Amino acid sequence: MPDDVLTPRPVRDSQSEMAEIVLPNDANPLGALLGGRLMHWIDLAGAMAAHRHSRNFVVTASVDHIDFLVPVRVGDLVILRSSVNRVFQTSMEVGVKVFVENYIADTAHHVASAHLTFVAIDSAGKRLRIPPVIPETEEQQQRYDDAGRRREIRRSELERRRKNR
Questions:
Q1: Where are the domains of the chain?
Q2: Count of C-beta atoms within a 10 Å radius of residue 50
Q3: CA distance 128 to 125
Q4: CA distance linking residue 146 with residue 61, whole number of Å
Q5: Which tens digits make up the pLDDT trace of 68-113?
Q6: What does the pLDDT read at residue 105?
Q7: Beta bridge partner(s), residue 62
Q8: Contact yes or no for 77/103 (Cβ under 8 A)
Q9: CATH for 9-163?
C-alpha cells in the first residue's frame, strides 16, 4: 500500500473516557467546580480521542462554545466521554460530553458538551494527514454530518473576521 493512503478507522477506536473527582483545589469559594478546570479536562479528554485516532501528536486548534448546564460540586465525580466525529485531511473534530455523578445520592446529570478541533503534527510541528473516520451507528453518522455543517460555519465566521480586519 502506498505511503499516501491512510487506512480509515472506526469511531470506536477513538472513544475515550476519563473520570475526575472534584477536589477543593478545583472549586471556587462556593464549592462549585471552576469553569476553567472543566475546560482543561474537556481539552484533555478530547486530546485522548484525537491521539487514539491519529496515532500522532495533536494540538488543539479551536473549541466551540461551552454552556455549563448544571453546577458540579466538591466531591462529585465528573465523567468525560470523547470520540472523533469527523476528519478533514490534517484536522479532526472531536466531541466531548461531560456528566456529573453523585455516587452518594446515585444521580447523574449532563453538565456540558463541546466540539474541539485538533490538528495532527509531527515532532517538528509539521501538519500530518489523518486517516478518515468511519461512523458505524446512526448516532455516529449524525455527529459526522453535523461536524461537516459546523466546519462550514467556522470557516464562514473566520472568513468574515478576516474581511473585517
A1: 9-163
A2: 31
A3: 9
A4: 18
A5: 999 999 999 999 999 999 999 999 999 999 999 988 889 899 999 9
A6: 87
A7: 117
A8: yes
A9: 3.10.129.10
